[in-house]
Specification:
Order of helices and strands: EEHEHEHHEHHEHEHHEHHEHEHHH
Bound molecules: phosphoenolpyruvate, magnesium ion
Largest sheet: 8 strands, parallel, barrel
Length: 365
């Protein structure tokens, strides 16, 4: 109620209502400690994300709105690895027009001042619903969401692709398709992209020359067939938020089974490893943009599995960069080899956390 004191502990996922004096004291101290840690990381923003042995790691930010870009850059991101455009569509009852989309994408490109913007096409459905009364499904996460919805609503999809292409005349853009589960879907999406580009050429409308085209790897079928997909795209971005839920059959939003949802599950690690190997062999960039990329305990493990590109929520970037700059690739590879020998996610997480704790104890205090 108004006037009541509440502590929100976002790290533990706890809310303490009407805390006693001892709890207040403890949390004030914790807040001071966290603020001091954040301040100490501020100077890293302009430093590169490079391991102690000199390996460069691309460190990008995930955003939902262009106005998050200044913060992302302030935190030290070298570009945007995931722009979730569906939030533009969720903010209003009617889908935004082509002009409104061009304006939003241009705003993002201009805010980046020459740094790359990875635009993900509409990922609507399941937990991200537009106002559509006829959109009732029994299993929406397995239903008509994301690229599937776009390929069934070509006007909507083409309008977005056109807006992305038009905006790309202003600066470096990459385009990325979400929830691809089948190579034919990818080919269809690419065909539409090419058709829209031809239309623009015919109409004499400008667009960027070289737009790398990638996919989110977030369905196990694609992770398993990664070597096939690698021949047809310019980059992979592993979406562990969905990849985990589809691999272990756990709804990512259901707290009753949240204990079973873990990126450290050995089956998830095996899929990530397969994607990295396939991408590396085909000489395409393999990034990871799920929440895992911003969780300190997984940074060394992911580098050890071969990832050289991570995209995380802006507030997590300084800490991730600090860890990257404190470790050698050899240390990470050793950790990953051991992690892959465990049978359970708990062993993996505990081990990975202890190894990171050795280099950055503040991350887990
Ligand atoms: C993912 O699935 O990991 C991802 C980054 O996409 P989203 O969280 O938007 O589904
Ligand atoms: Mg996803």
């Amino acid at each position: 109620r108004t006037g009541e004191l509440v502590i929100v502990d976002g790290k533990q996922g706890q809310v303490i209502i009407d805390p006693d004096a001892a709890q207040q004291f403890r949390y004030r101290q914790e807040r001071q400690r966290q603020e001091a840690f954040t301040t100490s990381l501020r100077e890293l923003a302009s430093e590169p994300a490079v391991t102690t042995d000199g390996t460069d790691i691309a460190l990008y930010a995930n955003i939902e709105f262009p106005n998050e870009i200044p913060t992302a850059l302030e935190k030290g991101a070298q570009g945007i690895g995931l722009y979730r455009t569906e939030f533009l569509f969720l903010a209003t009852d009617e889908p935004p027009t082509e002009e409104q989309q061009v304006e939003a994408y241009r705003k993002a490109i201009n805010a980046l001042g020459g740094k790359v913007l990875t635009i993900r096409t509409l990922d609507l459905g399941a937990d991200k619903m537009m106002h559509a009364p006829d959109w009732e499904e029994q299993n929406p996460f397995l239903g008509c969401r994301s690229i599937r919805y776009c390929l069934q609503h070509l006007d909507l999809f083409k309008t977005q692709v056109r807006a992305i292409l038009r905006a790309s005349a202003d600066g470096p853009v990459r385009i990325m398709f979400p929830l691809i589960s089948n190579i034919l879907e990818l080919r269809q999406a690419k065909m539409i992209f090419n058709d829209v580009r031809e239309d623009l050429t015919d109409a004499g409308i400008a667009y960027g020359n070289d737009i790398p085209m990638g996919i989110m790897v977030e369905v196990p079928s694609v992770a398993i067939q990664a070597s096939i997909f690698a021949k047809e795209v310019d980059f992979f971005s592993i979406g562990t938020n969905d990849l985990i839920q589809y691999t272990v059959a756990v709804d990512r939003g259901n707290e009753r089974v949240a204990n079973l949802y873990s990126g450290a599950h050995p089956a998830v690690l095996a899929l990530i490893k397969n994607v990295v190997q396939a991408g590396t062999k085909a000489k395409i960039e393999v990034g990871l943009c799920g929440e895992m990329a911003g969780e300190p305990e997984f940074v060394m493990l992911l580098l050890g599995l071969g990832l050289r590109s991570l995209s995380a929520t802006p507030p997590a970037i300084p800490e991730v960069k600090k860890i990257i700059r404190s470790v050698s690739l050899q240390q990470c590879q050793r950790l990953a080899r051991k992690a892959l020998s465990f049978d359970t996610d708990r062993e993996v997480t505990n081990f990975a956390r202890e190894e990171v704790r050795k280099v950055l104890p503040e991350a887990f205090d």
